[in-house]
Amino acid sequence: MSAPAQATQHVEEDRMSEAAEAAPARADCVADSAGGLTFHIADWARPAPGGHDDWSGALVLVRRGGRDAPDGEVRLPLGPTADGGLQAALPSTVALPEGRWDVHVAYRDAEPRRLAPGLNDLRSLVDRRPGPSTSPLSVRIPYATKHGNLSLRSWRRAPHAEAGEIRLEDDTVAVRGRLYRVAYPSEWLADAVVEARCRGGEAPVRTAPLEVEGPDFSFTLSYAELARTWGGGADVWDLWLRPADQTMAPARLARILDDVADKKEIFTYPPRTVAGRHGEALARPYYTRDNDLALRIEAPA
What we know:
By secondary structure, the chain is mainly beta. Helix content is 10%, strand content 45%.
């Protein structure tokens, strides 16, 4: 082969190598019913000075907005798989604070690189029913960011009130749910109430009684009651369960026991018209960016 041809070949090989290095590796995620995740990486071009038998790598989870915090980074060791890939395990017993975690892969002292999402097997998260326990409930849901990177949404709660069916009437909203991560759910729920707390406002807390059957509960809230203090803007009411025993922690109502990381734009409910002191308002339930359940009272568009 002539010198110019050899030079051209080397240039093409360098370009291919650079493209392979620039392309993010993909990770497949498999969830288990306890709240753990396993990451499988099959196409990472490792800059391995020790060769392909050198597995000195780590999966690096970085909490968004908390990188410099003591609990802002979690490193999981990578190990070889039978098919020549890599895998890392995130057991439910590893405490992962609530938030959004960006997923990276790192080799030795090299700068960690973001991972792209592969295939997710999240079947065990659908209609998940955690067993009895008083330890914090761990929920981790992988998802693809708008930039095509892999991230995790993490929750860690005890107690936890999981919202279920939501029924809308003309001027009320009825919610069913189940309480988790308390020693005796039926005793915790006895004489408990649902509290609607107006976010950032001076409105009084509104309460309503619960109907209880074992760990299951239901309640009905009146939109008209919430609209009595509506000031004409947008009022957001966060929903909590408060036990009769004031020494016990309340439970935030949320929907996290499934495979949907962001419910705000997916689980939508039609508004109802309600009379407020400043005229007619629109009232509806919705899920926040954290998948917490809230009610919104606002002026018609």
